[in-house]
Amino acid sequence: MELKVKKIAGCYSDPEAVPHLMDEKGIEFNPINVINWESHPYKPEVKFRIAYTDDAILLHYRVKEESVRAVTAEDNGNVWTDSCVEFFSIPAGDGVYYNFECNCAGTLLIGSGAERKGRIRGDKSVTDQILRWSSLGREPFEEREGETEWEIAIILPFKAYFRHDIKSMEGAVVRANFYKCGDLQKTPHYVSWNPIGRETPAFHAPEYFGTLYFE
After folding, report:
1. Using 50, 70 and 90 to split pLDDT, how confident is the model at 83?
2. What residue spans of the chain are helical by DSSP H?
3. Bridge partners for 100 per DSSP
4. Which of 6, 96, 154, 183 has the greatest number of beta carbons closer than 10 A?
5. Cα 189 to chain centroid, rounded
6. How far does the chain reach from its first CA to its final CA, in angstroms?
7. Separation of alpha carbons 201 and 197, rounded Å
8. What CA–CA distance (Å, rounded) separates 76 from 74?
9. In sequence order, what are the beta bridge partners of 141?
10. Using CA of residue 111, residue 113, residue 115, residue 119, what is the dihedral sign?
11. Average pLDDT in the 116-136 region?
């Protein structure tokens, strides 16, 4: 899969305003709807859109699913066990990719490395820079059954790529994938934007990333 990423001039600091800003600028949604493993057939309705500014990447997800969960209370906890949306990307040519994972209450995990093992986490000085808004609020909660729609908006500064010195994304070609999962939800699931050819569920699969073209 390939996607062109539009630039929105300026710098922004209010994540709650991101959905309206993207509406205003005509940024379109893209589906996260690929079922890669027959062992996990459940497919929630998930879509995302992405843009960038002078100093950050903007992300907006919309989700409809049969239950929601946000037990993880602290950044860099096990957010993938909750209702979780994820953005994995390789910002430079060295093969190091970053996993930005965010549960439905805006709790975040950041890791970096060339493979799944031995990943380096972004510490609090990094996670605190990433601005988040959730339509469900920012407080953790146990699983709630019943169909629920929710949204997450994220302002991801270039500085969050903490092992690189990125000043601009203009003209960049970035390998990336977008995901939705929920390992400990009532119905565990693993859906992706770009298809994954592994035999068992694995999002740490950079060989199956799609391509983002930053305009």
Report:
1. very high
2. 18-25, 124-127
3. 87, 110
4. 154
5. 16
6. 16
7. 10
8. 6
9. 70
10. negative
11. 97
pTM: 0.98
Structure confidence at residue 201 (pLDDT) = 97
Kindly list the distances between the CA atom of residue 127 and the CA atoms of 99, 134, 156, 162, 207, in Å, as whole numbers in the listed order: 12, 16, 9, 10, 26
Q: How distant, in Å, are the alpha carbons of 51, 98, 186, 200 from that of 86?
A: 16, 10, 19, 18
Query: Distance (Å, rounded) from C-alpha 15 to C-alpha 130?
Result: 9
Tokens 């010195």 correspond to: 165
Q: Which range of residues forms the domain containing residue 56?
A: 2-214
How do residues 144-176 score in pLDDT, each as one tens digit? 999 999 999 999 999 999 999 999 999 999 999
CATH number, domain containing residue 100? 2.60.40.1190
User: Which residue pairs from 193-198 have beta carbons closer than 8 angstroms and sit at least 24 positions apart in sequence?
Assistant: 193/1, 193/30, 193/31, 193/32, 193/34, 193/48, 194/1, 194/34, 195/1, 195/34, 195/36, 196/34, 196/36, 197/36, 198/36
As for how many domains the chain has, the answer is 1
pLDDT tens by residue, 16-67: 999 999 999 999 999 999 999 999 999 999 999 999 999 999 999 999 999 9
